[in-house]
Amino acid sequence: MNTAKFEYLLAIEKMGTITAAAEKCFVSASAVSQCLQKEEQEAGHRLFGRKEGRMVPTRAGLIYLQTVKEMLEIHRETMDKLHVLDQGHGAVRLSVAPMLYEAVSQHILPKLNAKIPDRSFVMLRADSRTSTAYLLNDLADAAILASPPVNHALLAEEILGEDRLLLAVPKAYLRGKVQGEPRISDCSHIPFILLRRGAYTRSIENQILAANQISLDRIYEVDDRVMVKKFLEEGRGAAFLPHFMLPDEAEQHFFILSPEPPVKFNMILAYPAHRKKDKDIQRM
Question: Is the pTM here over 0.85, yes or no?
Answer without folding.
Answer: no
